[in-house]
Amino acid sequence: MIINILERDREVIETSSFKLKGPYIKIVESTLKIVRAELKETNNYARSKNMKLIKKGKDDTFTEYLFIHGGYEDIRRYMNIRLRNRTEELISIYFTKSGNQYN
Fold first, then answer.
1. DSSP helix/strand/coil, 102
2. C-alpha distance across the termini of the chain, in Å
3. pLDDT higher than 90, residue 94
4. How many helices (H) and strands (E) does the chain have?
5. Contact 73/92 with Cβ under 8 angstroms?
6. Is 58 helix (H, G, I), strand (E, B) or coil?
7. Of the candidates 45, 31, 27, the residue with the CA atom closest to the CA atom of residue 3
8. pLDDT digits (tens, 9 = 90+) for 76-88
9. Tens digit of each residue's pLDDT (9 = 90 or more) over 36-75
10. Who contacts 90 (Cβ-Cβ below 8 Å, separation ≥6)?
11. Where does residue 103 rank: exposed (0-12), middle (13-18), buried (19+ CB within 10 A)?
12. Which among 45, 77, 84, 49 is positioned nearest to 63, based on CA atoms?
């Protein structure tokens, strides 16, 4: 989800009327690099432990996920507003990590 949001934001920045787009694009691309590396690491871990996460469905209020691990299945529903807020928190954390690369 974070990758999709950042890629859309990069497109908006590239097509916007910012006078100095470079710094903003650098921050977004640096953040995308960090997020992709962590996602790859997470996927490798999940694969090694035979874990799966499947998005089952979404409505106006909830998104449903299926977790599979060790022969067990667990269906969980998360409020979309909570997912959005957590995504915003994570993007802030990743921007901070990304900014520390330039110090």
1. coil
2. 28
3. yes
4. 3, 3
5. no
6. strand
7. 31
8. 999 999 999 999 9
9. 999 999 999 999 999 999 999 999 999 999 999 988 999 9
10. 2
11. exposed
12. 77
d(CA 95, CA 88): 11
Neighbouring residues of 77: CB distance < 8 A, sequence distance ≥ 6: 62, 63, 64, 65
Are the C-beta atoms of residues 61 and 52 closer than 8 Å to each other?
A: no
Which bin fits 71, alpha (ψ -120 to 50), beta or left (φ > 0)? left
Which helix or strand (DSSP H or E) is residue 56 part of? Answer: strand 51-58
Two tokens at 64? 């449903």
* Residue listed under structure tokens 């920045």: 13
Tell me which residue of 28, 40, 37, 23 sits closest to 95, measured CA to CA. Answer: 28
